[in-house]
Amino acid sequence: MRVRVASSVSSSVACLVVSLLAQTIGFDPLGVGLVATAKAQSVPKSLEEGGTDSALRVRKNNWTVGVAGGQLSGTYMTFANELAEVLDDGDNLRVVPIVTYGAASNLDDLLYLRNVDVAVTQADVFDYFRTQRKIANLESRVNYIVRLPASEMHVLARNEIKSIEDLRGKKVSFGPTALQKLKTGELAALVRVIGRPIDFFAKIPANSGLHFVPIPFSKIFADYYALGELTSKEYPSLVPDGQPVDTLSVPAVLAVFNWPKNTDRYRRVERFVDSLFTKWDKFREPPRHPKWRDVNLAATVPGWNRWSVADEMLKRIRPKDVADAQVASSDFSAFLKNSGSSAASLTQDQREALFREFMQWRDKQRGSAQR
Between helices 75-87 and 264-278, what is the axis angle to 10°? Predict the structure, then answer.
């Protein structure tokens, strides 16, 4: 696992939702450094093989794929690590997970950092780079492989902060190392957009004087986000039982750099994607992160293009996923049409959330019928 060491993280690497909130209520983003060390790993069998230095160098680097994950304690880094573990095939395919500053900087790294081929990022980040950073030809340079589960916005603050409005003009941090500053009042809030549950928050003891600040959904977020919630099931010490905290959620994306066809980097990522779809069922098994089981391989990402190789392999290796999604989408559209005006007024995010519930219900119905 590669580790990037940073002295500070500027507010520009925060996701678009944080930018929108900052513009809305005027809080002051404050970066926090990330310094981490790589975990020790077991000795691979490939080390038993010998050869000249030049031969070993070629063999070790021939089939490596770099994956930008996220901060060390985050869900995205867990995704990257588990990609490395499940897809590992020695010198035939070696996935190198990279600790980074987070979802927004991952897209920056995918574009500009050497040896980064794949990145875990968020759907809104793409639009931020396109509209705010104005990156040229972004749609042709970056595609997606699969849509990952949504990530929730966690705003942790002292108990006297009752609403997002209370953060107006105050300093907040986007890094997990600022908890002590939050407790002493040096910071007003700690913000992370990450898939729940996350141990960092779950391990905060009861009576800490901290809580999650609710984020009410409004039209300003409708283009990118859906309504989410944080519950006592994930965070019993921070959320009272039966009193979920409203927040925002945004789909995560496994993004890929669109390397020119038949180049060295292209063939590496092509093998990575082939292995990903072939071994997909392994990601749904313990001890893998439970959010893998929420992934619909055929799900699309509005505003993004699926990488052509991933699209072809999805249809070839897992045609049932595509067919099921197409049939379900047709059934769901008919259901919405017959539901009248209330269904027609749903936003795209609301439609997608309702579609996920529809798919879960349909799977349960099928399971009951089989029994």
Answer: 90
- Which domain does 260 fall in, by range? 2-317
The residue count of the chain comes to 371
Give the integer Cα–Cα distance in Å for 73 and 57: 32
Residue-by-residue DSSP string for 73-128: TSHHHHHHHHHHHHH--GGG-EEEEEE-S-HHHHHHHHHHSTT--EEEEEHHHHHH
Collect all residues with Cβ–Cβ distance below 8 Å to 15 and sequence separation of at least 6: 102, 103, 104, 122, 124, 125, 128, 193, 250
Residue 148, strand partner residues = 252
Measured CA to CA, the distance from residue 95 to residue 68 in angstroms comes to 10
d(CA 274, CA 279): 9
pTM of the shown model: 0.70
CATH number assigned to the domain comprising residue 239: 3.40.190.10
Cα 251 from Cα 146, distance rounded (Å): 11
38 and 167 housed in the same domain: yes
Q: Which residues of the chain have pLDDT under 50?
A: 5-15, 31-39, 326-328, 341, 344, 366, 368-371
For 208, phi then psi, to 5°, come to -80, -10
Q: Helices 123-131 and 103-112: crossing angle, nearest 10°?
A: 60
